[in-house]
Amino acid sequence: MLNVLMLGVGQCGNRILDAVNKEAFGGGGAARLAKYYLRPKFPSRVETLAVNTAINDLKELRFTTAKDRLHVPNLHGVGANRNVGKRAFMDNRDLIMGEIEKRGDFDIAFVITSTSGGTGSSFTPLLINELKRQYREITVVTIAILPAREEGSIYLQNAAFCLRELMEVDAEGIILVDNQYMKRFGGDIASAYDKINDMVAKRLLFLIESLDSEMLSVTDLGDFKTVMNGGLRIGTMGFYQADSKNQSIRDAIENSLKPANLLFPAHVADDAARAMIIIQGSREHLDVDEITKEVERLTASAGHVFKGIVVKKGPVKVLSVFTVASAPELESIYSQAARGMQDEKDKRCRARKQLDDAFAHIEDLEEIY
Amino acid sequence: MHIERVLPKMRRLVYLLCFACLLFSILLLASSSGKDDTDESDEITFKDFSLNIGDRVDLGDYRIELIEIQSVRDGLAVVRASKVGGSLDEQRVLLLDSSNSFDGGADHDGITVTVSDIFDEQSARIRIEYKQGLGTPRKHASERPAAALDKPELSVQKSFEKNQMSVGDAVKVTITVKNTGTGQALGIKADDSPPLPEFSYVAGYPPKIKETLDPGESDSAVYVVDAVKDGSIRVPAMTVIYTDSKKNTKSNSSDPFNILINPRSRADLVIEPASMTTIPLDGESLLNISIANRGTASATRIEAEGTVLPSDGLLATGLDKSIFEIKPGEEVNYPARLSGKSPGNYTIRLKVSYDGGDGSVIQEASAQVAVLEREYKYQYLLLIIPVVLIIAWVYRRYKVYKY
What we know:
Chain A is α/β, with parallel strands linked by helices. Chain A is built from 14 helices and ten strands. Chain B is rod-shaped, with a radius of gyration of 51 Å.
């Protein structure tokens, strides 16, 4: 059995972790009641821990048990300041690691965090380092959520620096989730975020289940690590569930790789470095030949594709995980972040100059009473 | 009568004597005084004596003795008159207030004796008339002890065994006659009143008493009557008639008294089964039946029978019972075993027949018995426990998620 550690760091990470716990209760509205009479049903041994410096963010969680919520005492959050966040982490490193240590040994850790916030973006790189230092054999995969571009320059700046640090740490890879990209779901902001959270949670659990299942065609943790080590070690996930009218495996695989079903905008044919296709469904729908043909076709563009087939009653579901060799969207983010920072810097200079000019008026004067 | 006749003569004689005395006084004054008084000695006088039997009066040579009182009622007394020398020795029965002349009577130098009063069986007053010349009479009390009285005195007592009784009760009536006198009572006849209408005489009537009872002796007779009518009754006196040895007839009566005859005693059985008995289905219970005699007579030959209505669904054993007797105020209890076979309400009818002293009597009573529906004890726990467990579980889960 796979030992999985899921860490939700910061507000965004906490909420996605809560969504994972909600999915473990079956998801949907039923989970609200199910948590009172069911235990979370994870496919493997999954330990969850929500870490935050803002206690109010922890209080908002609904499906994460109290013992799985760790408040790092630092007033009320770090105010999107990564430097404050880093200091807070270092001050409370033993507390955080001690809480993780209580949960035993793990084969893989998913660190879910927003790259733009304060706590998540500052804690995660340091936390990954600590995990790697403490658990030598652990596979650490970061689920990094990119901010919407209009959320502000600080968030973009945080995302830029956080991503760079995440790339520098000794993690197995990063799975990106782009809030800007996901806003296409429409509706109000809150429901859009809830949908993103649920979507990420569902795909993560599907992945864990796949890695820990007896398959017709096996994909395991090693395969997953290989995929995540490909390209820039940055990847994303696609998912498709066939409807009752069309149970074609080929269509399902293709649909799972379409941009509309990805968490981060990418073109598999052009950008993919390595991929893993996990197919789940009833035996009558699982045509191995057709699967093989489709995987072979994908391999032609993506380099190497691992395939896993899980026989399970129900509609055909396909999860695709792939790493990219190029990420034009990231360049766009960084350039936007740089512009933002430069603008901020210019504004600050202008403001300073104006202030200095204003002060110049009273330079030779004394206060008179 | 003699006195009345004698008195005028004596008055004339006194007048003559006074005249003669006056004449002789003149003569004596004129001549000498040496004449004797023989004329005074011829005067007749009398004297009364109260004598007991045996007492005597000596007068000159005469001796008068009271021998006996023969009959107080008839006024007869026996008096003996004698004279020294034996020329007179006569015993006569004197009639009251009749003068009797002895030795010619007082007119002829004898004596006249009259019984003027008889006090009792032992004493009388006697008047003796005589000429003064005989001397002065002197009484001599008898030195003999007084003869024992021959006087029977019967007391009679009539008594009932009890002063209160009930109609139908047999009661003994005792007649007791006792001679408390000193003489033998003869010819005794006990005269009890005729049967009262409130009684029927069973045996022993009329009571038989000895005809003769010596002093101190008593006799009694018992007869039995049944009270037949209730009420307060005045039992009249009974009389005993007897004679003494002198054939004097006497009588005495008992004191009348009251007795109370209550209405007839009857047994009154009251059946008191337990008011309401509940039995669980397929369970057993005891029904305590109490038969109490609230009457005044014993109930006998008591037969108790019980029936269950409806007959199906309740099994009752021990309802029937035979009891020989229940005395007044007593109570007999016995249990009947009930077994509930089918839920519902049942009636147990108890019928008790007995002899209550006035024929056969039947009493009935009933008891209600409810056989309960099967009770599922603690059934509510089937609901409460899961609810409590769910609430506890939910609360525990709530605490798990409460941060």
